[in-house]
Amino acid sequence: MPRPIWSGAISFGLVTIPIKVVPATENHSISFRQVHLEDMGRVRYRKVCEVDGKQLSDNEIVKGYEVSKDQLVAVTDEDLAEIPLPTAKAIEIVAFVPAGSIDPVRIGDSYYLEGDGQVAAKPYKLLRQALQRSSKVAVAKFALRGRERLGLLRVKDEALVLHSMHWPDEIRSPESLAPPAVEIDDSEVDGAIALMDAMGEEDISHYTDHYREALEELIAAKAEGKQPAPAAEAAEPGGQVVDLMAALNASVTQARASRGEGEHATVHEMPKPKKTAGKKTAKKTAKKTAEQKTAEKKTAAGTAAKSAAKKAAPKKAAERRKPRAS
């Protein structure tokens, strides 16, 4: 475990927990020196005053703030140390919030909090178990590297972890990045979920930095005077996806094949709308309407004929009853 970078206490109401802050992550990136290619001499940077041209040592350099174009104000480490900062030696918990309410965009560097001595054992465990049982995280203020920061306290295994957080006004709005409005069919969403299921994993600890591994091989080969192995040609990026459902189907099949799964998953393709369907429906509707009108005319004609027959029947009967002339 690396050396602590800060020591102080967690302020939890009236409870104090002495702790040490230890970096929770480490950087495995390969670093380079700048050299002169002709003779491999190291290229160094010197701190030179632009007024008198004198090369300066670190203890001769202080911070300066540009008030205006022609005015700089010097701020020394002593000036910063005298600023009243209540969180200078304390991680002050200011609120407890649901774990899911924190936007991951706000989370920065991570630190482990180590209990400092036996006196910290009980309150440390108390806070850890209280956070676990409540499913909450603690929002705290603390000072690190000359500035006050907002922090997030949570539980990882048996330890407390402190994440530095960006202040609310440091987060840019993503509103201008939203794509234009488009229609998404439910079957397309189902297809995307099927692909997510095919690519689902419980443990992602097996992923490694392939670029760093290739860079290490390159450096080892050149150190031995060997020619580095040629890199494999990268696949050409595909063109614009026209059939989204076909791409989802192919992606699910590929994901399952890469995992060696025998079961073949399929995303059902959406039925394509027929262009003639609307015309056929319109013709059927027009035909039915015409037939209905013809039937109605026939019914009306029949009804009129019956009415006329009924009216004519009494006249015919009267004529039959009249005596015939001799």
List keywords for this structure.
326 residues; alpha+beta; seven-stranded mixed beta barrel; two-stranded antiparallel ribbon; 11 strands; Prok_Ku; Non-homologous end joining protein Ku
Could you characterize what this model shows?
There is one protein chain. By secondary structure, the chain is of the alpha+beta class. Helix content is 33%, strand content 23%. The protein has helices spanning 77-81, 121-134, 186-198, 210-223, 244-258, 277-321; strands at residues 6-12, 15-23, 35-36, 41-42, 63-68, 71-75, 90-98, 107-115, 136-144, 147-156, 159-165. The strands form three sheets. The protein has a seven-stranded mixed barrel with strand order 1-2-8-11-10-9-7. A hairpin with a 2-residue loop joins strand 9 and strand 10. It is extended and about 65 Å long. The N and C termini lie far apart (145 Å).
Tell me briefly what this model is.
With LigD forms a non-homologous end joining (NHEJ) DNA repair enzyme, which repairs dsDNA breaks with reduced fidelity. Binds linear dsDNA with 5'- and 3'- overhangs but not closed circular dsDNA nor ssDNA. Recruits and stimulates the ligase activity of LigD. The protein has 326 residues and is an alpha+beta fold.
